[in-house]
Write a structure and sequence with these properties.
CATH architecture of the largest domain: Orthogonal Bundle
Distance between the termini: 75 Å
Oligomer: single chain
Helix content: over 70%
Structural class: mainly alpha
Order of helices and strands: HHHHHH
Number of helices: 6
Strand content: under 5%
CATH class of the largest domain: Mainly Alpha
Number of domains: 2
CATH superfamily of the largest domain: lambda repressor-like DNA-binding domains
Length: 113
């Protein structure tokens, strides 16, 4: 069951949902959903159908979902997000430098005035 839990977690991440979001949609507690994702709790058929419906899949699709391809896709998306974040961090640092330079210019103008 642990592989099913991993698939559910991967699907949840792809949707951008938290465990709390999914637990509310399934009308269960967050710890109960966490146990499903970690494979601690076996999933009965009705819960499996509920989860499949939530992710807009059939039960068969959920059970046969190829997580290797999806993990690669997720890793690629994560890499792109990391790249964008690094670019934004560089932009922020450059802007901070400009603010410091402008502050120094103002300070020097006050001193000479």
């Amino acid at each position: 069951m642990k592989t099913l839990g991993k698939k559910i977690r991967l699907l949840r991440h792809q949707k951008g949902w938290s465990q709390e979001d999914v637990a509310k949609k399934l009308d269960i507690s967050i710890p109960a959903f966490s146990k499903i994702e970690t494979g601690i709790t076996d999933i009965n058929l009705s819960r499996l159908e509920q989860i499949a419906t939530l992710f807009e899949m059939s039960v068969v699709q959920l059970l046969t979902f190829n997580d290797t391809q999806e993990e690669q896709k997720f890793a690629s998306e994560l890499e792109n997000i990391h790249k964008k974040l690094t670019e934004r961090e560089t932009e922020v640092i450059d802007l901070q430098k400009k603010v410091i330079e402008l502050f120094e210019e103002l300070r020097l103008k006050k001193v000479t005035a």
